[in-house]
Every structure is written in C-alpha cells, then in structure tokens.
Design brief:
Blueprint lengths: L1 H6 L6 H19 L1 H7 L3 H27 L5 E3 L1 H13 L2 H5 L1 H11 E3 L1
Antiparallel strand pairs: 1-2
Length: 115
C-alpha cells in the first residue's frame, strides 16, 4: 500500500517514520531470515517496539549532535518523500536485496540529514 503512495508523490510524516520503518524492517526480516528474527525478538510487536526505539533514538542523537556542533537547533532536515521510498524499498525488498542492506538504506539516510 505504501508503494502506491510513493508513486503519487505522498510523503511520510516525520513522526511516523521510525515506526513505519520498523514495521517494514521487522516484517522483511521475519519473511527472509526467520531464524535470525526469532533469535533476536520475542515476536513481531517486540521487534517493532525495539526498532522504533532505536530509530527514534538515532534521529534524536543526530539532531542533538548537529545542534551541539552548530550551536543552534534545527540543523537537520527531514525529507518525507525519501522516507516513504525508504520504507517502500525495505517492505518490497527481495531477500537477496535485504541481505545487502547498504543499497536499501541509502534512501533511509537521505530522509534525515543533519549538518
């Protein structure tokens, strides 16, 4: 469903990005690497909760670091369209593409940039 939104140019709201990315990541991990998924998480809800917290903390740390280095807040920019592409790419990735996540995460990195 997210793929359809990306095609028509819809963006993903910043406050939804971490949770949506976590859902996509967890479902793809569970589909492609079930043994790894089961070893790291108690279930889908546990995975989503864990990864949402990780992504939220990562974005907050990047924003704090940028604010410390520039002396002002707001040194980060969020691109909702890149975020929607990131989530869609993870959600629809083949297991081979998911194994080498570097290419998948380029859009994710582009969605939240701090200077």
């Amino acid at each position: 469903m997210m793929f359809l939104f990306v095609l028509v140019g819809c963006a993903l709201a910043e406050e939804d990005f971490a949770a949506e990315r976590a859902v996509a990541e967890c479902k793809t991990m569970r589909r492609c690497y079930r043994a790894q998924f089961d070893g790291e998480h108690e279930g889908l809800d546990d995975c989503i909760s864990d990864l949402t917290a990780v992504y939220d903390a990562s974005m907050a740390a990047a924003a704090d670091s940028a604010a410390d280095s520039t002396g002002k807040s707001g040194a980060c920019t969020y691109d909702g369209e890149a975020a929607a592409i990131c989530v869609s790419d993870i959600r629809t990735a083949s297991c081979e593409a998911y194994w080498d996540r570097a290419a998948l995460y380029e859009e994710c990195e582009a969605s939240f940039v701090c200077r």
